[in-house]
Specification:
Layout (H helix, E strand, L loop, with lengths): L7 E3 H15 L3 E5 L3 H4 L2 H6 L4 E3 L4 H13 L3 E7 H6 L2 H9 L6 E5 L17 H6 L5 E3 L4 H11 L6 E4 L4 E3 L14 E4 L4 E5 L3 H14 L4 E5 L2 E3 L3 H11 L2 E8 L4 H12 L4 E6 L9 H7 L4 H13 L3
Parallel strand pairs: 2-3, 2-4, 4-5, 5-7, 6-7, 10-11, 10-13, 13-14
Antiparallel strand pairs: 1-8, 6-12, 9-11
Helix pairs in contact: 1-8, 4-6, 9-13, 10-11
Length: about 325
Amino acid sequence: MDLHNVNYIPQRDGYGQGLLALCAQRQDVLVLDADVSASTRTNWVKDQYPDHFYNLGISEQDLVGTAAGLALGGLIPYVSTYGVFLSGRAFDQLRTTVCYNNLKVRFGGAHAGISVGPDGATHQALEDIALARVLPHMTVIAPCDSEETRKAVIAAADIDGPVYFRFGREAVPLITDEATPFTIGKARLVRQGTDCAVFACGAMVYEALLAAETLAQQGISLRVIDLHTIKPLDEEAVLDAARACGALVTAEEHQMAGGLFGAVAEAAARLCPVPMEAVAVHDTFGESGSPQALMDRYGLNAAAIVRSVRWALARKG
């Protein structure tokens, strides 16, 4: 793949395409939105399959409660709104109404991460992975591009229990295609390497590949792993990378605490402790700005991954 000649497509397009495919095939799939359907692309469902679509307005707690009732009735609701409001405002409903009862509700957390841009800190979901991951029964998925998002939406229809997807607003590089393998709960090896391994999710998978190119020119072999499913975690992939490479880095558009780094570090500490570094947001809120400027401002890019790999290797021994 030529990393410098890729198409940029919003992940939310893949979310909308996945929902369209499900609605075309299944009568039990419903799509619920909180009055942001143009942003989440669920307006595509409203236009093509209006009997599958319900707008509940800006009422996230009611949105989740209604979805729980539909799930109890044997339907599969896909709840769609901004991730920061879904995971924050409706946390009690997520926890007590859906997860406690292990209901088959799917949550589309749109506009996640700091790359929401000018909307600023109030709209930048930097804690949603942590909030979703801590809940019993919840599956947590952070796809790397629009195609992987589409596959995740479709695949989630057939698994038990609640599922949380997170995806951004901005267009990101398309680095997978229809033939690229995707299995919920199974990490995807994107690039082989022996000196250090980077586990990345979301838009940071592409940045990890760029970092691997830079490091290869410096004689460092970086393994790149797309850890799209953060829960349940593919512990076998973590163990294999730790043993084979002896140093790990994680890369995510999320707070360091409780997110991808936390998941990988928890597994590595039990299975095979090795030096680790994290590329993430470090205990701060975001700010307004252009998406790329914010990613660079908070060190969420290939250059930061290169630095973190070098720091991990320095402690490798």
